[in-house]
Write a structure and sequence with these properties.
The complex is a heterodimer of chains A (262) and B (410). Chain A has a domain of 167 residues: Rossmann fold (3-Layer(aba) Sandwich). Helix content of chain A is 30%, strand content 26%. Chain A contains seven helices and ten strands. In chain A, the strands form two sheets. Chain A has a six-stranded mixed β-sheet with strand order 6-7-8-3-9-10, sandwiched between helices. In chain A, strands 2-1-4-5 form a four-stranded antiparallel β-sheet. The longest helix of chain A has 17 residues. The radius of gyration of chain A is 20 Å and the shape is globular. Chain B has one domain. Chain B is built from eight helices and 22 strands. The radius of gyration of chain B is 21 Å and the shape is globular. Chain B starts with a helix and ends with a helix. The chains are: A alpha/beta (262), B alpha/beta (410). At the A-B interface, α2 and α3 of A face α6 and α7 of B. The structure holds adenosine-5'-diphosphate and magnesium ion (MG).
């Protein structure tokens, strides 16, 4: 049984500290939901885990089965078993889906001859129209099609752990059901561990979380069972959003016409 | 085979039109060029006729599949030509210009001495010209290929090609510029003439050796409702320049101009384009996409010129450049000159590295960085290659691009 272990993770973007010590342990086959207000650092967490350029880790550690992910370049993190379904999947003109998956599997020393059939089978299962499979990756796909495409790639690549960054945004009800069911099935099919970042509990109707966490101000501020998701839906995140910082002492040189609310 | 008297006279007339003064880089159209490094006296004009089809040219022709006609030109001399009998019976001509129909009137009609001194030099020095002539109403189903091959060290060669497409006729032409690894100076002049509702798709592959200097000019004229599609792949040469003058002279004429180019080592690839709208309701679309690696440089300058009479014109110009190394350099200067209000015009130009977000996306799936960049660069050219006029040439161009990527471009 594997685990994704995040300990005391702190990270900065553009010189600003966004993650302030994240602790999370996801075991194979488990689903952990991470919920939180806009700007809490959820996408930042997903990017830092995958090693996106521009994010600086300032402390802490991330391990998959004892492998230190933070020491690895992005593609080796994928090889170690991590997958990120992006909130905004990137269009890559001129690169086909099959090319991408073939290169991904071969680089990991895995059998790439299965790509064509695996893609066809998964696309059918997730309800991604086959005519879209010949397009360059994500090019001219709708928001919903992109998310189905992310899910399809996840299913073909069969990682150990998947981070889903707002997989539910931009999805209609049918697509949401198809994608969340596919991921849920993966947790038993290949023992996938899931870190599902979401705003809303509707993703979690089909993708049943074992644990729900609240991320606010760059750290996990609360964890609980599935009932926490419903509670958050009702009450919102006000409880965890910090009070406004006290106003700084008046600056004698300040512009008297400046907008005080800026 | 010797030239007929009219051609001899024509050459000497051209030679006497005045001194051949090298252009200055102070002229906008020669800015960023390497013309200042050119010494014409370093090169010897080829006057002996080469013979025999080089093995490389034969292999190339074979790899292109079925062709309606083919010409092999070696160091400026036509050494072989053929055309399908059925087409010849319909008046299609593919071969040396002197034996072609209306040979004397075919030459220079479109180029009119060429846009610069190198056009005049071509007029004065070309050995044989090639003529592809398709009479009105004839559709040529398979492509016509011209292999222009250079294999003399130190040569100055002036290849000449005239493609004349009659009213409502249709043809695809591949013009392959190759060479062995010689140092040579080559100044091709290409004239493309498309009559009413004619359709010409012309693909030019420039894969000369790495010590070649080429200064090429392509001049075209498209009449009413005619369509010219001209694509270029610029990969070879030490200095490889191509100037394109596309004149849309008849109402409803269309010019589709595209190019891919990929520089490495210390190459300079230099492109100047002129989309000239002389008549109403004319359309031009230009898409030039290039990548520069190593210490290479690319230059693109383009002008859309819309005359007062050219109401209802659509003219678009896009130049995109990938800068693959810190030491590579790409210049991109688009320009518009519009004399009427009734037009849709736009131009766009970009120079930048491979998109970091795209690389990250592919890497996040497990694709190693280098392969990710490679896929993106190769894919960058797809948009143009998919539309390349002679499909059989595309795998050859793609292979040359792959070879370049294999060698590493940083
Ligand atoms: N690339 C970036 N450059 C600058 N600021 C960033 C960048 N990415 C995220 N941030 C900032 O980090 C904070 C957290 O953003 P994000 O992780 O996207 O939040 P969430 O996904 O929870 O809505 C925000 O204040 C955001 O403006
Ligand atoms: Mg987010």
């Amino acid at each position: 049984m594997g685990e994704l272990r995040i300990q005391g993770l702190t990270a900065a973007v553009a010189g600003r500290q966004i993650l302030n010590g994240v602790d999370l342990v996801v075991k194979s086959g488990e689903v952990h939901a991470v919920m939180g207000p806009n700007g809490a650092g959820k996408s930042t967490l997903s990017h830092v885990l995958m090693g996106k350029p521009g994010y600086t880790v300032t402390g802490g550690s991330v391990m998959i089965d004892g492998v230190d992910l933070l020491a690895l370049p992005t593609y080796e993190r994928a090889k170690a078993g991590l997958f990120l379904a992006m909130q905004y999947p990137v269009e890559v003109p001129g690169v086909s889906l099959e090319e991408l998956l073939t290169e991904a599997l071969s680089a990991q020393g895995r059998d790439a001859s299965v790509v064509h059939t695996a893609v066809a089978a998964e696309a059918e299962r997730i309800g991604l129209a086959t005519r879209l499979l010949d397009r360059p990756v994500n090019v001219d796909l709708s928001g919903g099609e992109k998310k189905r495409n992310e899910t399809m790639q996840l299913a073909v690549l069969r990682p150990k752990f998947a981070i889903l960054d707002e997989l539910d945004s931009g999805l209609d009800v049918d697509a949401l059901r198809a994608c969340s069911r596919r991921v849920e099935a993966a947790t038993t099919e290949f023992d996938l561990g899931v870190l599902a970042i979401t705003h809303y509990s509707r993703l979690l109707e089909e993708l049943k979380p074992d644990v729900v966490h609240v991320l606010a101000q760059g750290r996990i501020v609360s964890s609980g069972g599935p009932e926490l998701a419903d509670e958050l839906e009702r009450t919102g995140y006000a409880e965890w959003v910090e009070e406004e910082a006290p106003a700084p002492a008046a600056d004698p040189f300040a512009d008297p016409f400046a907008d005080p609310f800026a | 085979m010797s030239s007929p008297q009219w051609l001899v006279d024509r050459r000497s007339a051209a030679a006497q039109t005045g001194e051949f003064v090298m252009p200055s880089t102070d002229e906008e159209v020669w800015r960023y060029s390497r013309v200042a490094d050119l010494q014409l006296t370093d090169w010897t004009v080829v006057s002996d006729r080469s013979e025999g089809v080089p093995a490389e040219a034969a292999t190339l022709l074979e790899s292109l599949g079925h062709l309606a006609g083919a010409v092999v030109v070696r160091n400026g001399a036509v050494v072989a030509s053929r055309v399908d009998d059925a087409l010849a019976a319909k008046g299609v001509y593919v071969g040396s210009i002197v034996d072609g129909p209306d040979a004397e009137s075919a030459l220079g009609v479109v180029a009119d001495g060429g846009p610069d001194v190198f056009g005049r030099l071509n007029d004065a020095n070309f050995l044989d010209g090639v003529l592809v002539h398709v009479p009105a109403g004839v559709t040529v189903d398979a492509p016509v290929a011209i292999i222009d091959w250079i294999d003399i060290e130190g040569a100055a060669v002036y290849p000449r090609l005239v493609v004349r497409v009659g009213a409502d006729a249709d043809v695809r032409v591949l013009d392959w510029h190759g060479s062995t690894d010689v140092a040579a100076f080559i100044a091709p002049l290409v004239e493309l003439d498309v009559d009413r509702a004619g359709r010409l798709s012309y693909g030019n592959v420039q894969l000369r050796g790495p010590r070649v200097w080429q200064i090429a000019s392509q001049v075209s004229r498209v009449r009413n409702d005619g369509t010219l599609t001209s694509s270029h792949a610029g990969l070879g040469c030490d200095y490889g320049r191509m100037r394109t003058d596309c004149r849309l002279v008849g109402r409803g004429a269309t010019g589709n101009l595209s190019a891919v180019y990929f520089g490495h080592d210390s190459q300079t690839l230099d492109f100047r384009t002129f989309q000239k709208h002389d008549a109403p309701d004319t359309n031009s679309n230009l898409l030039f996409k290039g990548a520069v690696g190593g210490h290479s440089r690319s230059v693109y300058t383009g002008l859309i010129r819309v005359e007062k009479e050219a109401r209802g014109t659509n003219a678009f110009q896009t130049n995109r450049n990938l800068k693959l190394s810190d030491t590579a350099w790409a210049e991109s200067v688009p320009n518009l000159e519009i004399e009427t209000n009734d037009v849709k015009c736009s131009h766009a130009s970009t120079v930048g590295p491979v998109d970091e977000e795209q690389v990250f996306y592919l890497e996040s799936r497990g694709v190693p960085t280098e392969i990710a960049e490679r896929l993106i660069v190769a894919g960058f050219f797809d948009e143009v290659l998919e539309e390349f006029p002679v499909a059989a040439a595309v795998p050859l161009i793609a292979a040359a691009i792959d070879e370049r990527l294999d060698a590493g471009v940083n």
